[in-house]
Structure formats: structure tokens, C-alpha cells
Amino acid sequence: MKHRIAVLGAGYAGANAAGRLARRLQPADTEITVVNADPDFVERVRLHQLATGQELKHRPLADVFAGTGIVLKIARVATVDADAKTVLLEDGSDLAYDTLVYALGSTAADQGVPGVADHAENVAGKAGALRLRDRLTALPAGGTVLVTGGGLTGIEAVTEIAESRPDLDVALAVRGGLGDWLSEKGRRHLTRVMSRLGVRIHDHTDVTEITGTHALTADGRKIPAEITVWTAGFAAHPIAAATTLRTDPAGRVMVDASMRSLSHPDVYAIGDAALAQGAGDKPLRMSCASGIPMAWHAADTIAAHLTARPLPETTIGYTLQCISLGRHDALVQRVTPDDRAKPSALTGRPAARVKQLICTAAAWSTANPTLKLPTRRHPTR
Q1: In the chain, where does the domain assigned CATH 3.50.50.60 lie?
Q2: Which residues 6+ apart lie within 8 Å of 118 measured at CB?
Q3: Is the pTM of this model over 0.90?
């Protein structure tokens, strides 16, 4: 009987894991099924571009997995019974598995701030980016836009909006200092770019409520905002937290160094859906830079278990933080393996070319999941 592997989610992490498993395992011995709600692969790291009216390359998952032997099911996951090893889909069907790869990613989290759910937009998914695009298109010149959150997503979103719509009044609210985790060179460049694009910075600002016309702050100010873009928090997809899987307060599946669930050894979690330790025993951040290496490592571990081969050992770490600042500028910050900024950073157009190359390579590798090493398949034992 074939060993049944179910992969939930076909983003950067899920698609890479499925493709690598197909590359490592004999199709006569294993059946790999990928479940995804959207029929297309979504370049999540480019959703701020989609929100400003740019078109992204169409990548149907049917084409991505064509010829791989992977079974693709376009469906939404309703629940996971980790004890019975069954996934229930919203169409009423179910999927039994022997090994589960949980890669359902993350969604925007309102952090308990009133008004976010009713009034704010986000770029955490394609649907949110398209809603924001429609609202930005309809906003007349002089309209006010506030982006809340000074992380990578917030910075990329606010610079993209300001560059594409210079006729708008665009602002960024940051709880700490702007780019305070960056090197001195990185912070200087970021400040110059924000000034050039006319972005008003509200640093050391805690947003406490969102309305349809403004944001309220902890110190009693009102920041005008006909459109608020919320990037101040992400949480794992809620399905895992509703199961018997061991999760953290944010709903991420807690895993060991091989991406294996601490509570259910037949479940592996990767990408934003997992809480894994990286270099320096620091939790890996929610990012494409974490998700793809996590996917490779989980797939290699699963293949090793099934083929009775030595288990791989690796520690996932970082080398760069790449931040687009519109279409013609960027910041590539060198970091330590545990994600602390080094003094050196690449800026301007050269950085934009590096950022573009990395995004393109990540999308290409995900959309061509079996065209990567290793190439040798092994039978299960």
C-alpha cells in the first residue's frame, strides 16, 4: 500500500515541500496530495505590488505540478483531525494521510485593536491586496492613506503606495523607531527614501483604534486615514489551534529541529504555520526566507524516514534582509545567521536589482518544484 502524504497549502513552503518529496520518493511507493484554496500560486512577497495596480505573473498550480505525479485538490481545509489522521475539506470530502505537511501560512492579525476588522485593509493575502487595489484606485487626489506597522511588510507597502500614487497623502505609523533593527547605513537610507517619497512618519506611535476616517493613538492624536493598511501583526492560520496539535499562543505548530510536530510525529509544519528554532536558538521569523529552507529540510527528513536513510541535520539561518522601496530602490541589509543587522548594506538601484533577482528566483523555484537537487529517488522501506 502506498504511503499517503498530504500537503496543506501551496505557497512558497508547501509547493517546495511537495516538489522536493516528489523528487526524492518513488511514485510507486508514495502518493502525494496537495490541497490549496486558490488555483494559482500566489507570490505573497509581491502583494504590495498587486495592491498598487501592478500585474503579477499568472502561475496556475495545475501547471506547477504537471508531470510530477502530485495530486492537486483545489479546496479549502475545514478541520484537521490529527489523531485520526484525516483532513476534512469544506466541500464535505475528507483526505486520509500517513504523513501530513501543514503549510497553511498566516493571516493578518488585528492584535485586539478596535476597528481593524471593520475598517482596515491588508496585504496578507491576494483577496486583501485586490480589495486594497480597488480602494486605492477609487481614492481621489489628496486622499489620506495610513500604513500601520514598521516591519518589512509595512515599509514595502507604504513606499509602493507613495511611489505609485504621489498625489495621495501617505503616512506610516511605527510603534518604535523607523527601521530601528537596521544598521546605521540602512536607517539613513530608509529615512532618505521616505522623505523623497513624501511619506509622513509617525514613529513611537501606538495605534489604539481604527475608524473609517482616522486612526487614534495612545497619546490622544488623530491621524487622518481614509484608507488604513494594517501590517502590524500576523498570526498563523487558525485551523492548527483548533486541533490537538501543540501550538503556541499565535497558533503556530510547535516543531523540533526537523520541522516535526512536538505532539504528533506524523505531522510536519513549515513556513509561517510553524514555530521553529533557527540559528542562535531564535524563532524563525514569518518570511519566504524561512519558509523555503524549512520546506526543504522537512521534505528531506520525511524522505529519510521513509527510505531508512540517515536523517539530515541543518540549522536554518539568514544572510540578508531584502526590502523593496518602490520599483527602483531597495535596501539589502546583511545580517548574522540569527538575523541581527551587520554594518554593511546595499542600497539604491543595485539593491533593487538584487531584490528583484531574489524574488524571481524564489518564485521560479516554487513554480518549478521538481527541477532542483536532489535528483535521485529512493524506494520506501
Answers
A1: 3-108+234-316, 116-230
A2: 210
A3: yes
